[in-house]
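As agreed, record minuted below.
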Amino acid sequence: MAVHSVRAIQARLSARGIHPGPIDNKDGPRTRAAMDQFRAKFGMSIQEDFHPSGLHAIVMHWSGGWGTVADDDLDHYHRITDRAGVVHTGKFSPLDNVPPLRRGAYAAHTWQMNGGAIGVCMDGMVHAVERPFDPGPEPITRVQLEAFVRDTASVAREYRIPVSRFTLLSHAEVEPTLGVKQRQKWDIKWLPGMRRPGDPVRVGGIIRDMIAAVPE
């Protein structure tokens, strides 16, 4: 069984509705009490709730590219959806129906968050500017978003990752939710049909609602 960081355990507890206090990667009494509450409620340890692969989170991105999936994108993300809605498999894909994530190898998609986290991406948004907002010449598309949502739903189900802001979140949500600084990343704060970027947690919630609605 994989050994997970305290931050990953705190996030998983929060996703299951048991609050360990601040998600701060500190093994304090509130985290220990929450772990005990989880065992009492579910009849197993929080470690047993994770997928045996050790994969425990999904981080959603856009690439900042031209929407056609460059070779560099395949190095950095596990799943990439192009602007036409075609899903491409990264070089270190964790999905069981393609070559698995190699032991000790991971795609470097999120600063200090790569271990155990699956990076899923919509390719596009080259030259996009947050303020004043300009989506650039290759903004993400509605068709792309819908395909991305379906694929991300399948990844979450495959690896038993709860559809929660604590365990399935956008790059822009990582810092405010998990306390891991991300150098002012703003993906994904805008979606097709929006006039301007919004609050990252609200926009992430829109995507999560779409993912949760995908039929099994």
